[in-house]
Batch of 4 targets.
Target 1
Amino acid sequence: MITDSPRLGLSVSAVLGAALIWSSSFAVTKVALAEVPPMTLGALRFALAALILGVAVHTGPDRRRLPSPRERLFIGSAGLLGITAYFALENVGVDLATASDATLIVASYPILTLVLSGRAEFSPVRLTGMLLTVGGVCLVVRGNGTHSLWGDVFLIAGGVAWAAYNILARRDRSGASPIVVTYYQTLAGAGGFVLLSLSEVDRWVVPSGANVLRIAFLAGLCSVAGFLLYNYGLRRLEASVAVNLLNVVPVAGLVWAVVLAGERLALVQVLGGAVVIAGVTLGLHRKKTRGSLRRTDTEGHLESAQ
């Protein structure tokens, strides 16, 4: 256990900083999508993120411990699922629905990941949390028009893709550092997005200065800085503590949706969000054992880790 209060405070601040960065991504994405098509936005965001990570990997100490070509192929396949497939569904969902809907629905992803991975321990408390989470998502979706409803469907499908990514990523045996794994996943994900963006050629325009800044924010802060901050915090915090700190994401995300995207929240959305957060908190509960909460539980909560 860490008893150094200043260092512990830095770790908590790092995780909270990552959460606040990630919570803003939906609102920033929503505003950018008014000008940049969904697949093109993904291509620009992750190509820039891959460039930043590539410089860090190939100039840092990790350059001597890169995975083999076969291991890179496996890591890349996870990137196509966790970055290309997931964020393509998320971008389309945010485009059709609202940033606030995305924030609240994505809050349910940890439970979805636990269920689909088959690693959930179905204690009465956890089962209650899972049911509450589902009910909260239903409240968020309830009352939306058909246009927003389809967006919510895409966001929920994105949750399935994210859960599948977590299951696949856990099978990585390369032993590479997190930043190296993230680099190769992001590189593959960016490549997938570039191919998808070709379907939007007729919608391509030169981004405005404001959108260039938004894309840089999504790439540099949401996809790189947030990840580094979170992993710094995990070095000195129990995974269960980090997960609880990440519950600030849907709350802060609603604030960003109002401030940045100019959205108005319905009372049923606020109620649904509160139920989702309560459900996630209960759903991640585990009986105390010798070890702390498995990191796999934490991984399921990294909705916007990139």
Target 2
Amino acid sequence: MSFSFAALGNDLYTGARSVPVVAKRRRFYLASAALIVVAALGLVLNGLNLGLEFRGGSEFRVATTSTPADYEQTARDAVGAAEDQRGVNVTLVGNDTVRVQTERLSEADSQDVRQSLATAFGVPEQNVSGTFIGPSWGQSVSSQALRALVIFVLAVALVLSIYFRNWKMAAAALIATVHDMVITVGIYALSGFEVSPATMIGFLTVLGYSLYDTVVVFDKVRENTTEAFANGRMTFAQAANLAVNQTMVRSINTTVIGVLPIAAVLVVGALFLGPGVLLDLSLVLFVGIIIGAYSSIFIATPILVSLRRNEPAVVDLEKRAQRHQARRAKDAAVESAGPRAGAEGDDVPVGVGAPAAAEGDSSTLTGRAVHKYAQSGPRNQPRRTPKSKR
């Protein structure tokens, strides 16, 4: 039997199949807690590898026709021989450019380093470029990024509270977003990639994507829960879980479509281009989009259910839904049992001419009372005379 993703999506939408996301929410909370611990260890042990734009310093780029295998040690020896600068960062950009970053150097020291690099790599001095970025510029970038993040969070909280008319929905969405950001930053720290302005752009993009996916799910949650409050057929948790199942295939499809081109850029950047804007940005987006899709399905809605489970209206809805589902289960059991047979020794055929149920008898098919003068069986069938009276 072949698997059909479309059929699975249809079954999840109609409720024929169901993934117990809300019922198993503690497992997903534990999985997220484990990811957060790993991310925190990455931040504590490795820390963020801040780029030159944030910490300030000097950068040199050596354009070579053939990069030696030991290019990193060659660059470190050249810089150390010039000014005893051992804290350098050497990376390969593309196939023919060596990037060397050091602490802040004076103009005379920068010139010495350029000459030493040109000699070490056997290239003309004009093939070695040097730039300087002051720490004040990096501090300005950092402060502006933090300011933008604070404004973004406050604006999102306000807009979501107004849109959903429920501050707990906004709180659940923001908790899921913080969850995504912590894990993404931690994994980025573990990778050792450099934090550049492009990385900050990627972080803000991940925030927007995560919120977008969560809002789509919450729209369906609001629709289902509003209907549940009106008819009392499902509990709040059941209606929310149905909403997650109904949007699950859409979230997976959107994530796959978004991740595939980013994965291609990430592979090309890692294998051929080396460190740079594309690699920094693609890693953040790749990790962030996957984590954002996970949180919108398995974290945001369960958190919302946990936040609202003790509300009086939600508790009352659960009682109404349990009574309704109990009635339906009872009716289904009666229907599956079929018509009752006559008493043992009675020659009345099953379901034909059976004695009418007494008024208020709960053993009828629907559980409703049957009038005492109602005649069972076909209306024109004559009554049979017992043998004792023949």
Target 3
Amino acid sequence: MEERITRGVTSFPRRLRPGDRVALVAPAGPVDPERLARGRDLLAGLGLEVVIGDHVLEREWFLAGSDAGRAADLQEAWCDPGVAAVICARGGYGTTRLLDLLDWDAMAAAGPKILLGSSDITALHRAFAHRLGVVTLFGPMPATALLGGPEGPDQVTFAHLKEVLFEGGRPGPIVGDRLLVPGRAGGGVIRGPVVGGNLALLAALCGTPYELRAEGCVVLLEDVTEEPYRIDRMLTQLRQAGCLDGALGFALGSWVECGDPLPVLAERLAPLGAPVIAGLPVGHGAPQLCVWMGADGTIVTESYSLTSMFRDPRAAP
């Protein structure tokens, strides 16, 4: 297979309309059938036709079935011209194991569509940016407690997801709660493509074709159940690998069950000279808001906000 690696994001998928077909796949950890059913019904209630990959409910060790089966579901959904969005059921672990199994030429030929997921799905956001040059959506997944729990979805999360997914929606900026590091320029307005995602996955991708390259970009970082010393270690790894060089600004999402990581984050990121805003409800926990990865992003340090701009692919340049 010919190697295909694009430099930078070049295409935007079409946003959804009622009646569109979406496919649920499980690239990572095992999926709870009841949460999956509730998440499926939630999406169907938005007027979407929901199909489920053949291997989604399989289980092998700590994975949602075999690597081959998980990769086949993902590739089949992406290459199906009748599918408008590929939605990852949950994160967990295992997505990086699929990156060498996908036929990137076939997936590139299929053209852009929405990919939605977060956490371990950071590996797909990085790979899709490099191999396909497509904007992807970092956001909540249907077979998680946040959307598929027995008490119903978190309403703020669900409302924002609907606003972002469908044509005509105009979600506003995502607002944090502090300027953690002012940066050398003293803050202001910072614009650049949004990259990043889950910190542990970004560290795991160091040394691969999909490693983070932050030059000229706005970097989103978040994680869950990582002690501050582990966050320190991963940030140090990214810095020593040059992955954070040239970043224009940092937007820090949630750090659920991570103790108090902000002092470590400030100490490790401050020498890079870029502003750092913190407290954005992105990543894990509730609410969990959506960010378009690869899209044009804007940090406003005065309001601690991040906006990721979606460009309609049918609009004139």
Target 4
Amino acid sequence: MMNNLLKNHLCKLPPGYIIVGKWHKHSYKIIKLLGNGANGVVYLAESSKGLVAVKLSDNSMAITSEVNVLKHFSKVQGVALGPSLLDVDDWFDPYSNKIICFYVMEYIKGEGFLSFIQKKGKEWIIILILQLLSDLEKLHQEGWVFGDLKPENLLVVGQAPKIRLLDVGGTTLKGRAIKEFTEFYDRGYWGMGSRKAEPSYDLFSVAMIMINACYLKRFEKQGNGREQLMKMIVADETLRKYRKVLMSAIDGKYKYAREMHYELMAAVMNGPSRMTTKNVSKKIQKSKKRSSVLETALIFMIIFFMYVIYLYIELL
């Protein structure tokens, strides 16, 4: 956790301020503040490589942990699990007379998840959530749990909208205690499980993101958390269609993101799932490669047709 006085100072670096790395001598010209959290502040900056995101912190252990996560993700072939890591260095801050650690990431330009849903409509929730579940499946296979999964850490990019994960600060190795969380998306807060890093923890958060996307405002727990969430799901026309899937995620019944993906796809097709959780688990173990290709094809078909409809409506 950062020192509050130092954090307040780092949040006020003016546009045009130049940070120069102590070791690599790369310079970064501050444009604007993108965000701040418990372990650092993130700026949009200009560099010799174009626009980048720079994270600054006096917490060297937290920075090292996040850098290691990004390095690991960069080794995963064929999928962007997080922003690309571009540089890691130290900076001497003359104001605090301290060495500030920082790392530089790819700047991903896009729109916030909730803002996108507000503008384009609730029908996009399922398309983006299916993409998210596919990314989480790959993340979990690599031995990690995202942890602090929430709309603020999701960005929608590209003309054919694609979801991207941001801020790996809460990403935790499976089996350990979740490092960072936000109460509304945390199953511990709702009395629905532990804060152990396992796929079901992330999948609970996915269900809460869907609920948040429909209600747009977060609400506090009142009484029995499970009953309250069920009532919220039943009360909304969109969420009601996916009640079984959402409650299974809330109850921690899914061991894999792929299980939730299959049953959500079945609900989208307006039919009961032909695969039980047990059968899905067996299928995952026996034919991951074949099912992955099929999933990708189905997602592509849905996205393609939804995007054609979207373009048609926009042109009217």
